[in-house]
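In the laboratory, one determines a bound structure by crystallizing the protein with its ligand and collecting diffraction data. In a computational setting the workflow is compressed into a single prediction: the sequence and the ligand go in, and a structural description comes out. We illustrate the idea with glutathione.
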Amino acid sequence: MILIGQFDSPFVRRTAIALRLYGMEFEHRPWSVFGDAQKIARYNPLMRVPTLVLDDGDVLIESHAILDALDQMAGTQKSMMPAGEARRHALKVCALGTGIADKAVSMVYETHVHNRATPAWIDRCLSQIAGVLGELEASRSRQKTEWWFGDRIGHADVTVACALRFLGDAHAGLFDLSEGWPMLAAHAAKCEALPPFIEIQQPFSVTPSST
Ligand SMILES: N[C@@H](CCC(=O)N[C@@H](CS)C(=O)NCC(=O)O)C(=O)O
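The predicted complex, in C-alpha cell form:
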C-alpha cells in the first residue's frame, strides 16, 4: 500500500498510526497538498490527503473511509473500532476529533493561504473547538477503561490524540489542555509516548507547502 500525505496532517497521521498499529506495511509519499497537488491529482481528483493506494491499484480517500477499509482487512478480532453499541459512540468521538482537526486546519488556511482572517469565522472555529473539547473531556471522564472504549487502543484514541497534537502545534497557546481539559491532556501525553506516535510525526510549519 502507498499512503500519500504529510504527517503534519492530523488525518494522514491517524491513518499512518492505525496502519502501524495493525502491523500493515506501507510505503509513504510525503506529498504536499499545495506543492505536489498535481502528483496527488493522479490518484485523487480532490487533491486531498490522506489518499491510500491499495496493492491492487484501487484508491481510497477520506480518513474515515480508509480506516473502515483497514478494519475490514484486519478482521473483527483485531479491529480498532469496537462492535455493538460502543461502535456508534466511538464513531462520534472520532467525528468530534476530526471536527477539531477540520476547524484547526480551516483556521490555518484562513490566516496563511487566504492571507486574511475573517473575525466572525475565526470566532466561530474557536467556539466550535472549545465546545468539542468540553464534550470530549466529559466523554473521556465517563469512560473508566484504560483506553476510550476498552483495554486496547482504538481509532477514537488515535484520532483525538492526533487532533490535539495538531491543534497545539498549529495554534500554540490558544488552548492550554492542562488548564481546562486535564483528561484530554493526560490522554494526549499517553498516546504521544507510544512508539508509533513517536515515529509518525512531522513538525508543523506554515509554508505554502504545509500539510
Ligand atoms: N475529511 C478529510 C479531511 C482531510 C483534509 O482536510 N486534508 C487536508 C490536509 S490536512 C487537505 O487535503 N487539504 C487540501 C484541500 O482540502 O484541498 C479526511 O478525514 O480525510
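The CA atoms of residues 170 and 204 lie 6 Å apart. Keep in mind that any predicted model is a hypothesis to be tested, not a measurement.
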